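Pair request: fold both.
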Amino acid sequence: MKLFSKLVLVGALALSSALAYNPLDGVKAQKAEALKYVKNFVTATELTQWIKAKKDFTIVDVREPQEVLAGKIAYKNSLFIPRGVLYGAVKKRKLTPNKTYVFVCRTGHRALLAAATLKKYYNFKNVVVLKGGIKAWIKNNGTITNAMKLGPVKIQLQK
């Protein structure tokens, strides 16, 4: 086979592989796996009702520190543990298997993965995920606080 033909063949194979790759397939697979373990979700409206009713739970915000600085749910029983360091929090007993935790992130995906990890590998019993994450919380007029010490504020998302 001539060199040009070989290069065309290699190029075509590389292009077909690149076109076949879809990074969202991995995300979908992660979500499907996590949903085998996590069955409990709460909406922003329901979470507001839980807070008003003084239900016994802790919010675990698994976003990165800079995301939390921008705004967090105004709730006294909150922990901020980035998803990547959950193991350390379990090891140090900041999280224990028999308490109720509501996991929060920006959209709900990382929260779902974090909750599934605790349920699957550490036998946590009561893990709940905020549907739609902090974005849904804000969209439903949930109160947030930020690191600028402005106190509780309402933020409207632009459409």
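--- second member of the pair ---
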Amino acid sequence: MVQEGFEIALATNDSTAIAELSRSPIDLVILDVMLPGRSGFDILRDIRQLKPRLPVMMLTARGEAIDRILGLELGADDYLAKPFDPRELTARVRAILRRTSAGLETPGSESSLTLGRMSLDLKRRRASIDGNPLELTGAEFRILQLLSEEKGRPVERRVLTERALGRKLTLYDRSIDTHVSNLRRKLERSDQCGIEIRSVRGTGYELIELDSA
């Protein structure tokens, strides 16, 4: 990927990877599931402890759907099945970096959103409830922002996939559902946060601001 203009730091084991993340300004991690020693899932847990919002793309073996689901549940932003076209990997990386640097803001848009007891800082891409940080991955934040901006209106899974993940929704792709499930769990840990993400059968999801908020 050097020829594509990216500066690459290669880590061959978990300790090297974590040390590199601790001392260097890394913008994105490409993490293989199958590694010598500890698995990519174990390393992903460490990354999320160290840098909760750092974008992580998992590489998984073809046909191993359970790997992709587990990776997303542990906080990966996206996944790519092996073998893959290097051009697709480059396109995915560029899409993630664009979303990370620019967020979902458009000219004239608000710099923050407040729903119930939750606040979204759109410029810094931070979420909080009653002032307490809500640790979200980049993908989770973008989904939450999209649902918040369409409060009370269903948002199609296709739209969420395209705008939050930067790719087309394909058959059997359940990435959005996994990200939403993670979001729900994090919101539920904050007692009576004043919002709820509801499934809309045959469509997608909608965010509701509860009356008790």
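Observation on the second member. Residues 86-102 form the longest helix (17 residues).
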